[in-house]
Amino acid sequence: MQNRYYDGGGMEEEKPRLLLMGLRRSGRSSIANVVFNKLPPSDTLYLESTRDINKERMHSFMDFQVWDIPAGVSYLDAPDQDIDGIFSSVGALIWVIDAQDEYFTAIQRLNDTILYLCRRYHSPQHPDNPFDGMPHIEVFVHKVDGLSDDFRADVFRDIQQRILDDVADHGFDAAPIHFYSTSIYDATIFEAFSKVIQRLVPQLPALENLLNGLCSKTGVEKAYLFDVCTKIYIASDTTPGDITQYETCSDLIDVVVDISEIYGWERPDPEPGSFEEKMLAQETGNSDAEAMITMERRGAKCLYLREVNKYLALVCIMAVDDPAEKRAMVEYNMRVFARGVNQVFEVRPRLMEDAELKRVQRAKASEAKMGRKK
């Protein structure tokens, strides 16, 4: 596996954007550095407060921008702020609320932002999807690691109820708002970001179908498709899972990445060629592209990791008596799955190009028809 890094320059406006927002000292910058820059959580204590909009681009299976918006930016009421520039091309707005601090001001600021977006995007003429095009509002009730379980649940419910009630009072109860309880000191922040990213992946239904098929054919208990650099999983099978399963698979990602950084090598991008040649190069270009580890915990538990392509890895939890007996069948099905995932991500750009070509052709035909009438 190769190292992937994040680049703050050369922003491209068409890339989907994640906005990190919240009050001062809410934990926005800490979240961004832990998830996207692999900063140890203990080192976030030394981060300075964000004074300017910090822009980074994530190079991954889906390039997107991450903007850390400082609390001092009055983006709604300041005439010198480019509101359209901030909120255009936004896939998700992540609002971070410090659960250990007084949060009524944060809720009011968030509600003002939600109402602004609802009024901007609300389309009553489309009752099936009245907020089409509106960014998803993702509320992170953050720093919950310092609260007792009961108090944590009470704070979460109180914040959720206050926000939803205020939005509903203005007639926008169908707005896309989601809530998460998070901390940078455990896996909850990665779990929350996984859910956020999945809403931005148009191929998610196809990926879930592939994972469900893989689980049914190979006896896999739980399967995750990970972005290797961030440990965010972009898809999983639809069977119920828990946070401990994610943590187990995430730890395996860390082990394999650490080993590959020592013994791996930089794999060149495949030369332009046919689709089949590119897929073959992805599958055979790195002989350490898969690893298998057996762990004994309350019976035989086998963790299987296979690199799918440059950015993605499949991690599975299997309950088998003897993994060696089924290794050939498992590896065959994993290869088929990897090929299917690569085809899913290859086909969508083609479909989008075809749709754009047809749109241009229709526009030209319409212009020609209008010219003949004149």
From TrEMBL:
Known catalytic reactions: GTP + H2O = GDP + phosphate + H(+)
PANTHER family per the UniProt record, alphabetical: GH16429P (PTHR11259:SF2), RAS-RELATED GTP BINDING RAG/GTR YEAST (PTHR11259)
Pfam families in the record: Gtr1_RagA (PF04670)
UniProt subcellular location: Endomembrane system
Keyword GTP-binding: yes
GO BP, one annotated term: negative regulation of autophagy
Family: Belongs to the GTR/RAG GTP-binding protein family.
Cellular component terms per the entry's GO annotation: endomembrane system; Gtr1-Gtr2 GTPase complex; nucleus
GO molecular function, one term: GTPase activity
SUPFAM superfamilies per UniProt: P-loop containing nucleoside triphosphate hydrolases
Full protein name: GTP-binding protein
